[in-house]
Specification:
With 198 residues, this protein is α+β, with helices and mostly antiparallel strands. Helix content is 16%, strand content 39%. The chain is globular and about 75 Å long. The N and C termini lie far apart (60 Å).
Amino acid sequence: MTTDNNTTKVITGKVRLSYVHVFEPNSIDGGDEKYSCAILIPKTDKETLRKIKAATDAAKELGKGKWGGKIPANCKTPLRDGDEERPDDEAYAGHYFLNATSKNKPGVAKPIGKGADGKTKFQEITDTTEVYSGCYAKVSLNLYPFDAKGNRGIAAGLNNVVKVQDGEFLGGRASVNDEFADEDFEVDGMEDDEDFMN
């Protein structure tokens, strides 16, 4: 079976991002600093899940060269079941998820319309508050085989992130209005009936 980069590459449908580190690299458990995010894929998005399975299978074929000519019986794969692995996390309910990482900074952008050629045009996002845990995006991934300290499997490389929609913050962050609406404040010049921060 011949395998090229296109068979191990996936562009997802609309997914939700969590543990977002796409502007600055982050070290997990003292390891190398990498750009990363968790990608939550609705279980109803059969097309994205099909693409990930196909790319995982293609990456396993590529991995035979690293793994002594055969796919290991305990080959780790990136896709995990949110209902099973994160039963107490509401955001993961009804989703599969995977963690994607990159040593290089991923492209981060948003669509701004179509050009004269009919193709979508994008604008780079540089505001680090605009892409966060809880927003929705389409993500390009590259699945690849690894062999590290006896662990063998398939990992997901993070290529580009295109934000498509805002979402509720994950991680329990509440808005100022929600948290302080019922508190009394004495502020010079503020009338009681003024609509504060709206």
